[in-house]
Design goal:
280 residues; alpha/beta; Rossmann fold; seven-stranded parallel sheet; two-stranded parallel ribbon; 54% helix
């Protein structure tokens, strides 16, 4: 698909080793982006790099580490900025998932959701967005949240804690970064056929139970492909969209949850504009 926004741009993608991250990296490479890739899994990341280069794409940097490790993100940022200066596009796609009711969820699962899904993107934004601002070229930030960041889905309390948090950060930055010419897109997928489906922890539930396997199978049949999500992300960047849906059911559900969007957006932008004057 053609893209006005990624061609020739330096694009950082986390979680590029599989699923949505890999599909987005391949699509971004195909439309001419210069890629800077990370993933916690060095083997999967290397496979993505090979796929990108085999298709004629460019990977300038690929580094395997955990985005929840702030010091490691700072080190990565120093290396990238020292050699290539600031990014044009930053995509926070890396994430993990655990479901369960509050009496079954363990503290480690709550902590892991927040550490990886919320603090991970925050670490990336802390390190990479200020240099974009100082460069003065504008750009775009993509944060992959979830339908669980919009709606109160069953068994998603820990996951939603991180995804609602990422949505809140993104909504503030949407208005804050506008004065710098940096767009913000919040991607809110429903079901996606990624390796996460097979590895997601469900607290207190036996994954081998036939009833659970039946539900997982039903989920996978309704889920969209990572490639479809990647197309939605690139199209969202091109069109400057804030909310990027990947399926109609999530769009409809959120419409019901929030009917008065236009007055809200007007007031938030007006308030942000007033606060921005204080900085001058």
């Amino acid at each position: 698909m053609p893209s006005r926004s990624l061609t020739g741009k330096k694009c950082l993608i986390t979680g590029a080793g599989s699923g949505i991250g890999r599909a987005t990296a391949l699509l971004a490479a195909n439309v001419g982006a210069d890629l800077f890739l990370t993933d916690v899994n060095d083997v999967s990341l290397a496979e993505t790099v090979d796929l990108v280069r085999a298709s004629g794409g460019t990977v300038s940097v690929a580094d395997a580490f955990d985005v929840s490790d702030y010091d490691r993100v700072v080190q990565f940022g120093a290396d990238v900025h020292g050699r290539f200066a600031s990014m044009d596009i930053v995509m926070n796609i890396a994430g993990i998932s655990a479901w369960g009711t509050i009496e079954n969820l363990e503290h480690r699962q709550w902590k892991a959701m927040v550490d990886v899904n919320l603090m991970g993107p925050i670490h990336i934004m802390e390190v990479f967005i200020p240099p974009m601002i100082r460069a003065g070229r504008g750009g775009h930030l993509v944060n992959v949240s979830s339908a669980a960041g919009l709606l109160a889905l069953p068994w998603h309390a820990a996951y939603s804690a991180s995804k609602f948090g990422l949505r809140g950060v993104s909504e503030v930055l949407r208005f804050d970064l506008k004065r710098h010419g940096i767009g913000v897109s919040l991607v809110v997928p429903g079901g996606v056929r990624t390796p996460l489906v097979g590895t997601v922890e469900i607290a207190g539930i036996d994954r081998n139970d036939p009833r659970v396997q039946k539900l997982v199978g039903r989920f996978e049949r309704r889920a969209v492909s990572p490639e479809k999500v990647a197309e939605c992300i690139v199209r969202g960047i091109d069109k400057g969209r804030y909310l990027v849906y990947t399926s109609g059911d999530i769009r409809f559900g959120y419409w019901w949850a929030r009917k008065f969007s236009l007055p809200y957006e007007y007031v938030m932008q007006l308030a942000n504009n007033q606060f921005s004057k204080l900085l001058k």
